[in-house]
Structure formats: structure tokens, C-alpha cells
Amino acid sequence: MIAWLNSLLWRLLLLAVLGSIAYWGWIYASPWVNQPIRQVVLQGDIPLGQQQLLMAQLQSQNLGRFFGVNLNAVKDQVEDNVWVDDAVVSRVWPDRLMVEVSPQVIVARWGQHQVLNHHWQILDLDLNLVPDLEALPVLQGPIEQTLNMANNFRAMNAVLAPENLAIDTLHMAKRGAVDLVLDNDIEVLLGRDKGMQRLRRLVQIYHTDLAALPEPIARIDGRYPHGVAVAMKADKAVVSQPVN
């Protein structure tokens, strides 16, 4: 029994000694191992002015020491920048913070002064900094219909693709009527109801009757129950017969 107690006491004493060594070792080594963050490295393809703004914000604050820096707080701060879609923040020993940003992917313009990212969120950006702004399609309509319009945009482009056509502008009126301007400058009127059904019928008529017309087409009105009305750029009009 005494031998067992002696063994236990020696083990406890050894643990105490080792704990003391670890504690004082950490106290001694901490200023060297756990150094203050002295350098922030920002990586990501966002406009230079926005990079400089982010760097100025991060470098102007006390981020703390290497093991104490709040990575989630830095991530949230970086993602507050409208040009940043996502950020990954990590430590690089001994005193560096690495910030990797994923830029917003701009897929369309929203009206005249805003853009849509690939999540179909409306963003207020400096449009002068958006690459190839004029080549982006335009969506315009009630703000509460943004997601619905985005879904229509994708679905309608899929219908148009076999004819090598694409949407340049999609406009939705307050009451839901949809008009398109295609990338060949043809205006397409689809009305409020059955837009996809009307577009499919229009594409069928375009393939069989309209694509080979000698005069360029200005407008196709697909709001008729069984056919479409076509206005030519030469101010002549032709009405396609119903499709069975």
C-alpha cells in the first residue's frame, strides 16, 4: 500500500515538474513563437483600388498576436467589401496573415446602374471597373422578381441556343409582361402569361419560316394564341400562320 502511494506521489510530482517546465517554457518562448501580426498578404483578382482600400483597413488595426488573431472577424470584414464574394483567411508563421479573396462574378447588368453576380444578387459597383460591361446582358424589372427573371433568363437562353440566338435584354413590366431583345437586335414580345410556351413556338416558327427571310426582322410578337406577327426593319410586316 505504501509503495503504491509512493509511486503515485512520484508521478504527481513528475507531472507537476513537467507542467511547470511547459508553463515557464511557454512564458519564455511566447514572445518569439506567438508574435504580433506584422504583415498582411492579400491575394485575389479585385480592382486595384479595392485591394488598396482593404489593405489599408487591415493594416490600420491591431490584429493581435499570431495565435490570437480572430480569423472569422477578419473574414467578415473582408467580405463586407462589395467586390469580394468569398474570403479565406489563414495564418502563416511567424507573423503573417494570408487573405485570399474570390471576386464577384458579374453575369448581367441590372437596369442602368447596377449589376447581378452569379448568385443573382443585385450589387452596387463602380460600373467603370466592371470588365466588358457593354457585353453583359441586361435584366430590368421589379426588384422582387429578380430571381424569377434570372430563372427565365437561363431557361429562355436554353430554348434559343439551338438557333444560335441569345438574350441581350430581358425586360419584365410591373404586371409581369416579358419582352426580349436578342443578340441579333430582334425584339421579342412574349406578354404576361405562358412566356416559355410562346417562346418555344416562336423558335419553331423562326426555324421553319423566319430565319431565311431576305429582309432583317425588327420585331416578333409572340402573344398570339397560335402564331406570331413579324415586323420587318424595312417597315413591311408578315404574319406567320399557326403551328400545329
Features:
244 residues; three-stranded mixed sheet; ten-stranded mixed sheet; disordered C terminus; 5 helices; alpha/beta; 3 domains; 13 strands; Ubiquitin-like (UB roll); Rossmann fold
Terminal-residue CA separation: 101 Å
CATH superfamily of the largest domain: Cell division protein FtsQ/DivIB
Taking all Cα atoms into account, the compactness measure Rg is 32 Å
In total, the number of domains comes to 3
Beta percentage is 25-35%
Q: Mean pLDDT, as a whole number? A: 86
Which structural category do the helix and sheet elements fall into?
alpha/beta
Total DSSP E strands = 13
How would you describe this protein?
The structure is a single chain. The strands form 2 sheets. Strands 6-5-4-7-8-9-10-11-12-13 form a 10-stranded mixed sheet, with helices on one face. A 3-stranded mixed sheet has the order 1-3-2, covered by helices on one side. The termini are far apart. By secondary structure, the chain is of the alpha/beta class. It has 3 domains: 1-30; 39-103, membrane protein fhac (Ubiquitin-like (UB roll), Roll); 137-239, Cell division protein FtsQ/DivIB (Rossmann fold), CATH 3.40.50.11690. Helix 4 packs parallel to helix 5. It contains 5 helices and 13 strands. Strand 8 (167-172) and strand 9 (178-182) form a beta hairpin. It has helices at 2-33, 48-59, 71-79, 146-160, 195-210, and strands at 39-43, 84-92, 96-103, 106-110, 114-117, 122-123, 138-140, 167-172, 178-182, 187-191, 217-221, 229-232, 237-239. Residues 239-244 have low confidence and may be disordered.
